Amino acid sequence: MTAALIVIIVILAVALGALAAYHLGSLRRRPAAAAPRPGSRRILFPFVASALSQRALDAALRLARAEDAALLPVFLARVPLTLPLDSPLPRQASLCLPLQEAIEQRAAAFGVPVDARIERGRTYRHALRRTIATERFERIVMAAASDGGPGFGPEDVAWLLDHAPGEIVVLRPGAEDPLLPSPPRPRRRGVSATGRRDRARDPVRA
User: Fold this and answer.
1) pLDDT tens digit string along 170-179?
2) Which is nearest to 116 in space by CA: 168, 203, 42, 58?
3) C-beta neighbour count of 152 within 10 angstroms
4) Is the C or the N end of the chain the one with fewer CB within 10 Å?
């Protein structure tokens, strides 16, 4: 092996080491959502289209990071009695997807893995009942509505305290608590761009 070849090999090794160090540093600087580990602790975070409290979400993420747990955000979808429970709900799906994306981006900043779900029910309480019956979790974090703020009503919170297993953390955000993202504004009755007559949209109706 000639001296020139040895020099080339050394230069290539140094360059590869520098490239690997650069990529490792960039990965550390860019938060990315990780998949939950099998058997890891899980924190259930139920939410609805009109009430995704940023403060409640951040509290759940801080607990998940401290406990090395995964976040289980569950979007509760109300299905009218006039429809089968497994009917497609395109309007609620269009609301759920950006909310779940916002949660995943927030969780990536905290370094918390996310395992998102959608649960259907005739009411939010029915959807909560189905959730706690089918999902594994050790703790629930939820927002209670107060002073016009986002969250669940006192009857639903009381029911969950009586029926759900594990630890339950209930936060009471204020009216100024931001939503993630802000819910769409209702549109006035009129003709849409497609020529159809539009109703004012209720973000929690099917």
Assistant:
1) 988 766 666 5
2) 42
3) 23
4) N
